[in-house]
Amino acid sequence: MKKKLDVEKMTYAVLAIACFFIFWWFITTFTPAKETTPGPVEVIQLLFTSFFEPIGSHVITGHLLVSLRRVLVGFSVATVLGIVLGVAMGASKWAEAIFKPIFELLRPIPPIAWISLVILFFGIGEVSKYILCGIGAFTNVTLNAYTGAQNVDPELVGCARMLGTSERDIFFRVVLPSCTPQIFAGMQVALSTSWMAVLAAEMVGAQEGCGWMIQRGSDTLNITLVMVGMIVIGCVGMLLAAVMRVIERRLCAWNIMES
Amino acid sequence: MNEYAKQKRKEKIKFGIVSVISLCLFFTIWYVCTAVLHLKPDYILPSPVQVVEAFIDKLTRTAPDGATIFGHIAASLQVALTGYLLGALVGVPLGVAMAWFRRVDMFVTPLFDLIRPVPTIAWIPLMILWFGIGLGAKAAIIFVSAFVPCVINAYAGIKQTKPVHLWVAQTFGASRKEMLFTVAIPTALPLIFTGLRISLGTAWMTLCAAEMLASNKGLGYMIQVNRSLARADLIVVAMLTIGLIGTIFTVGLNALERKFVKGGRRG
Amino acid sequence: MSDEIKVKVSHMTKKFGDLLVLNDISFDVKTGEFLCVVGPTGCGKTTFLNCLTKLKAYELTGGEILINGEPVDLQKHNIAYIFQEYSSFPWATVEENIAYGLKVKKRPPEEIKERVEEMLQLVGLTEYRSYYPGQLSASMLQRVSIARAFAVQPELLLMDEPYGQMDNSLRYKLEDELIQLWQRTGTTVIFITHNIEEAVYLSQRILVLTNKPTSIKKEIDNNLPRPRDVTDPAFNQLRDEVTDLIKWW
Fold it and tell me: Are residues C70 and C164 in the same domain?
């Protein structure tokens, strides 16, 4: 009975996507929209050629790598800092009292709102991109690390203490591992926020990268390029999320074995 | 008050004072770095005093960016709320329908999964090209960003419905429709509210980007234009205003949720 | 208990793919009768109830189940089902939960109000009427389900090991309450349990089922006078009789 359901699901999925493409093709061939919007054929064509013919200074993979690099740098640094701050705030009342008010003051400001200030401060170079990605990631990771550390089961800690574990070991072998799932959830959101931040930063001031590519398409009224950019960006987004999930599965399995 | 409670209160006061000192220190350092040491020119990093002055100034003056702070807030709110309400009004019922009707699920979910990975910001150039610079494009962008979390959470909420609850309704003779409205939707309410909360957050965040690239008024525009005018103090005013309004939204929605989601359940 | 037949089960057979679960079972349940069904876990007791109520779209592979001489129609026949798991709606108060069945059956508001009051009193939850299930204890939760079931004055009440998860003192209390409610309303009850003492305590008739493929091992009449006493030798004799049957499940 399960097999029948899967076949049914597949059929509907294929049907839905086919309808989508037909609808798209129809609108861009037979209605006034054809003046403004490219059809699926042109988009797919450009998608293929972009792997060989450069847009601006790179082929599409080049732009991808540039954007990814920016995200990775910003994200990694921010994650480390975020985990440190978050866990500190969650584990120590002093850290919480000192840092939380400032954090809560700055947190509601969306990363994108920081763009202007960061650009004024650091210029349009790579550093400002890293920082913007970092801001995007930092808030989420910190918040999650904070709640994770706050919610460590007091029984676990008490148990370890009773068994004579040193405070330092309690921190590294009980508190930290039990925060890990929560921290990972935060990292996943943080990664997608970083990805969005880098795109925004590239659309505002850059010479390369996926965000720049889309903006270039917009500036030159090249909707096909815009759509190709969107597709690529969507795929990368999915990839990043999938990679995070794989890493989480491995790290948390390690976690279970360790503790 | 017993000993334990007294001690807890003392602790709270002690840490409260620490927090206040920390905040004061933060502002002092900021002030010192800017107004006293002039580490960076004013137009790049303003001092807190300058920010406050700019804010007061903005209460009435429309120069140099075209509107008073209220004008910008109003423009931003208009766009954000329009897009958000549309997104919620379309997203929640769609999510419910997708979770309740198997056929709808099988047909719409693949399409939804196609759109979902594209970050909202990536939609901006397309929307500008389609709708031009103005309310239409901005509202459309915000619609997309609000729509997605509403669908996802409404869907998850309905899928959470316990079969046994449906069976209770069914044995009493409830029709499919009655089961949807008296069992499934009440079950889903906490998650639906979570979706509404998240999408308001995303909507407000996307608003920034949308206004930076597709607008001539609003708080996001204010951030953008004041960069070229080298008015960092106004930029900071705008940033803090955005943060403040975002917080008000979150607090407001939390209060609404407590009122409507009965039984002490949270999504 | 009258002589009218409420539920007529004829040659009931149910297969899941190749797995034969219910094997040609036939029996009658008289109106107002309290019937207990005992059998090993997994022998298909719940499947039987699901087939009866057509929940999960269970269709019988063979045979038929008639209520009042007609095929089962959940909107026509007034059936209430108390499940093994706690099934009160967490988003509604005790009052609203109890009123639910009546609302679905579109009874007039005054009747609903009256019935809910009556039920609250009967199960002793009047002070808790505005509480939510999340705030109630286990016994109260099951009482809410029972009140909700009895509120619609069902012609047939199905109960699937409703006290399975409780300790003995609580169970005894609820069993007594159940008997009282049953005697007051004259509902026909089909009660499933694997607890033999419970079956002997509650039933007027006991249906002992076999393992899969399930069929009726024996039907035993239970004429012990009420209120029943677990220390009574006659009680224990009946209990031993049923236990012996079970030993060879």
Answer: yes
Same domain, B111 and B213: yes
CA distances from A139 to A80, A113, A186, B254 (A): 12, 14, 9, 20
Q: Are residues C141 and C174 in the same domain?
A: no
Q: In this structure, are residues B258 and B201 in contact, taking their beta carbons and an 8 Å threshold? A: no
The answer to whether position B266 is within a domain reads no
pLDDT at B143: 93
**Architecture label for domain A60-258:** Orthogonal Bundle (1.10)
**Residue A201's closest chain B neighbor by CA?**
B209
| One domain for residues B31 and B163 | no
Q: Which residues of C touch B168 (CB under 8 A)?
A: 81, 83, 87, 89, 100, 148
Asked if B1 has any chain C CB less than 8 Å from its own CB, the reply is no
| B53 within some domain | yes
Segment (H or E) for C154: none
C46 touches chain B (CB under 8 A): no
Report the SS3 class of residue C28: strand
Do the Cβ atoms of A17 and B230 come within 8 Å?
Answer: no
Contact present, C209 and C39 (Cβ < 8 Å): yes
**Nearest residue to C178 via CA among C167, C156, C162:** C162
Chain B residue with CA closest to C133: the answer is B263
Cα–Cα distance between B165 and A158 in angstroms, integer? 40
CB within 8 Å of C142: residues ≥ 6 apart: C82, C86, C162, C163, C166, C174
Q: What is the DSSP string of B169-192?
A: HHHTT--HHHHIIIIIHHHHHHHH
CB of C133 less than 8 A from some CB of B: yes
> Closest Cα of chain C to B171: distance in Å?
6
Query: Based on the domain organization, do C173 and C219 belong to the same domain?
Result: yes
Residue C248 has a pLDDT of 65
C118, C221: one domain: no
Write down the residue that tokens 């949807």 correspond to. Answer: B180
- What's the gap in Å between the CA of B259 and the closest CA on chain A? 24
**Weakly modelled stretches of chain A, pLDDT under 70:** 1-4, 253-259
From C123, C154, C185, give the residue that closes a domain: C154
Q: A116 and chain B: CB distance < 8 Å anywhere?
A: yes
Give the closest of B174, B178, B265 to C90, CB-based: B265
Q: Do C104 and B187 touch (CB under 8 A)?
A: no
Task: Write out the residue range of the structural domain in which residue C53 sits.
Answer: 5-77+156-247
Q: What does the pLDDT look like over C91-104, one tens digit per residue?
A: 999 999 999 999 99
Secondary structure (DSSP) of B127-162: HHHHH-SSHHHHHHHHHHHHHHHHHHHHHHHHHT--
Q: Does some domain include residue B265?
A: no
Identify the domain containing residue B187 by its residue range: 46-260
The first and second tokens of residue B145, run together, are 């960003």
Instruction: Specify the 3-state DSSP secondary structure of C218.
Output: strand
Tokens linked to C202: 């509650």
Residue with tokens 């594209």: B118
> Which pTM value belongs to this model?
0.84
pLDDT of residue C127: 92
Are both C99 and C169 inside the same structural domain?
no
Backbone angles phi, psi at C157, to 5 degrees: -115, 125
Looking at the structure, do residues B229 and B118 belong to the same domain, yes or no? yes
pLDDT band for position C157 (cuts 50, 70, 90): very high
- Average pLDDT in chain B: 86
Weakest-pLDDT range from A167-171, C205-209, C218-222: A167-171
Q: Tell me if B30 sits within 8 A of A106, measured CB to CB.
A: no
B35/B50 same-domain check: no
Domain count, chain C: 2
Chain B contact probe: residue of A4, A120, A204, A221 with most B CBs at under 10 A: A120
- Please judge whether B23 and A99 are an interchain contact, meaning their C-beta atoms are less than 8 angstroms apart: no
Query: Nearest CB to A226: which of B23, B129, B250?
Result: B129
